[in-house]
Amino acid sequence: MNKICTAAEAVADIRTGQAIGSVGVIGWLTPDALLQELARRFRETAAPRDLTFFFPVSVGDAMGIRGMDHVAIEGLMKRVVSGNFINTIDPATGKRPEMMRLIRENKIEAYCWPIGATMHWLREVARRSPGYLTRIGIGSYIDPRQQGGKYTLRAEKDLVRLMEIDGEEHLFYPSWPLDVGFLRATSADEYGNLSFEDEPITSSALAMALAVKASGGTVIAQVRKIVPRQARLVHSVRLPGELVDRIVVEPTPMMTTDVRYDDAYLGGQIFPGHGADRLPPGADKIIARRTAREIRPGVPTIFGFGASSNVPAVMMEDGAFDGKGLLDYRFTTEHGPFGGIVMSGWQFSANKYPEALIDGPAQFDFINGGNCKTAALAFAQLDAAGNVNVSRFGAANPGPGGFIDIAYNAETLLFTGTFTTGGLEVNVEDGQLAIVREGEVRKFVGQVQEITYPVGANVAKRRQNARVITERAVFDIEPEGLVLTEIAPGIDLQTQVLALMDYPPIRIAAPLPLMDATLFRP
Question: What's the mean pLDDT in 100-123?
Answer without folding.
Answer: 97
